Amino acid sequence: MTATAFKQKPNTFSASLSADKLSLKHGKISIIDQLNVTLPEGQVTAIVGPNGCGKSTLLNGLSRVHTPSSGVVMLDGKDIHSLPSKEVARRLALLPQDTLAPDGITIEELIRFGRHPHQSLLRQWAMDDQEAIKYALQAADLEGLKDRLLDTLSGGQRQRAWIAMSIAQETPLLLLDEPTSALDLGHQIEVFELIRNLSRQGKTLAMVVHDLPSACRYSDHIIAMKEGEILTQGSPKDIMTKELVRELYGVDCDLMPDPMTGSPILINIRRLKS
């Protein structure tokens, strides 16, 4: 899929998402303590760091899946936990790492679930809903597969179907937890390019990413975490250094600019000398 694979549908509204002194726990164990985060609007933010550093916990906190032990998450200047669920769902979509769909469901049927926040007793299925589904299929390059059963798809096609459901939700904010997990290289690129295409429309996206080179290439903003803290954040060009890679992952590397994008490329990755 290329950047010109579909006619872009610009957002008609935007939304801001931030956290102030956010603390999150699993039971009595503190995972994140007093973090301040603001997602740059209209950009892709990659949350990176070693396993267990709190990346997914932060994403769940920002999406109100995880209730803070202290601090506040603000959606458009309001405490996200004070807002009705459907109001949040019309502004923010979350694609978790582990997704589960009913057996025997087609791609189009899955995508229809994305329209649920827009339904009510007074507003049933309308032409706008069908247009949103049509656009989501086009954006995810799934028009020719809409009648295929979800469980017959490749990993990359299945992940694009889930993202298409989020596109149909028509939110200005989209959070994704490891969207390329368990995908081969080709399918990873498909998903990352779809995410980049969505940002070009003005959507604000945040994704948990394990692959640091991909984070540098496909994001505008990086949040680097370790042990529940943010070590640094900023554009890949501004923050990515050999010292940061060593601090995050305990490896040495060299950096060079990508000849096409100018973003940092990690080369000569090696274990630290003892």
From TrEMBL:
Q: Which Pfam families match?
A: ABC_tran
Q: Does the keyword Transport apply?
A: yes
Report the main location listed first in the record.
membrane
Ordered alphabetically, the record's keywords are: ATP-binding, Cell membrane, Ion transport, Iron, Iron transport, Membrane, Nucleotide-binding, Transport
What membrane topology does this protein have?
A: Peripheral membrane protein
Query: Could you tell me which residue ranges the ABC transporter domain spans?
Result: 17-252
A single Gene Ontology biological process assigned to it is: iron ion transport
Q: Which GO terms describe its molecular function?
A: ATP binding; ATP hydrolysis activity
Q: Where in the cell is it found?
A: Cell membrane
Query: CDD domains under this entry?
Result: ABC_Iron-Siderophores_B12_Hemin (cd03214)
One GO CC annotation: plasma membrane
Q: Which family does it belong to?
A: Belongs to the ABC transporter superfamily.
Know the name of this protein? Iron complex transport system ATP-binding protein
Q: Which organism is it from?
A: Marinomonas alcarazii
